[in-house]
Write a structure and sequence with these properties.
Keywords: Mitochondrion, Transferase, Transit peptide. By secondary structure, the chain is an alpha+beta fold. It has 5 helices and 11 strands, in the order E-E-H-E-E-E-H-H-H-H-E-E-E-E-E-E.
């Protein structure tokens, strides 16, 4: 997020990240600072909120354009179904910023994004494993095909323009109750005939997200666990571009 405090200053950039990798991200950014006068520091006095307007995509005009206690209040840049991102000082009065809002549980947020197939954080996008196009980042304003150059830019651009993407992250659901112990990340997913369909990434309750081969995504799927076989099904998110859903 760009934070323009005044026209006389350089813009401040606020980065949102997975808190579990805060230190490694700071070290990575400082590698590229070189000799520029750039200050990189965490903001422990801020809190992040997701504002989700029920099950239907929201209209940004229904939220106040600015509020004294909100540092950032903007549509989620990834997808309309994710509502808005709100960043405010810790302890801010949320009902004053968004009248009529109700504070939910963080697990409600994770369930919502798993239902929509939106990956987030290192559990869903393990570093060194997750590929940008397979993770649908081109649908989430996460990849630029006009700027250059960045690490992996040539391979990412070539794959995009060739249009050959055989695996994608998809939302999955379990018709029955999933194991109480959960499903380990990376667990192999098979078709009923025993073909390898992909791997489970993460989930919340009966919802989750998995990297699946598109050729098998519409088939009945299962996961074999010690002493149990868990059935699941995948779906194509309605917010995807129509051409990608085919």
């Amino acid at each position: 997020f760009r934070l323009h405090r005044s026209t006389a200053e350089e813009p401040h950039i606020l980065l949102e990240c997975d808190s579990s990798v805060l230190d490694s991200i700071q070290k990575h950014l400082k590698l590229y600072k070189i000799r520029r006068k750039v200050a990189i520091a965490p903001c422990p006095d801020l809190s992040l909120w997701a504002v989700i307007p029920g099950e239907q995509p929201g209209d940004a005009s229904s939220l106040p354009k600015s509020a004294d206690q909100a540092l950032v209040l903007t549509p989620d840049p990834r997808a309309e179904v994710m509502g808005w991102r709100l960043i405010a000082k810790k302890g801010a009065n949320l009902s004053a910023i968004i009248p009529g809002s109700q504070v939910g549980d963080v697990q409600d947020y994770h369930r919502h994004r798993y239902k929509q197939g939106i990956p987030e954080g290192v559990k869903d996008l393990p570093p060194g494993v997750a590929l940008p196009l397979e993770s649908n980042l081109a649908f989430l304003n996460g990849i630029s095909f006009t700027k250059g150059c960045y690490i992996g830019q040539e391979l990412t651009a070539r794959t995009h323009h060739m249009g050959v993407i055989r695996k994608r992250l998809l939302p999955v659901s379990f018709p029955g109750s999933p194991p109480s112990s959960g499903i380990p990340p990376g667990t192999e997913i098979l078709t009923q005939s025993g073909k390898r369909a992909g791997r489970f990434r993460a989930g919340q309750g009966e919802l989750g997200i998995a990297l699946l081969r598109l050729a098998h995504a519409k088939e009945p799927l299962c996961i074999h666990l010690p002493g149990d076989t868990v059935r699941l099904s995948a779906s194509t998110p309605p917010w995807w571009p129509k051409a990608a859903a085919k």
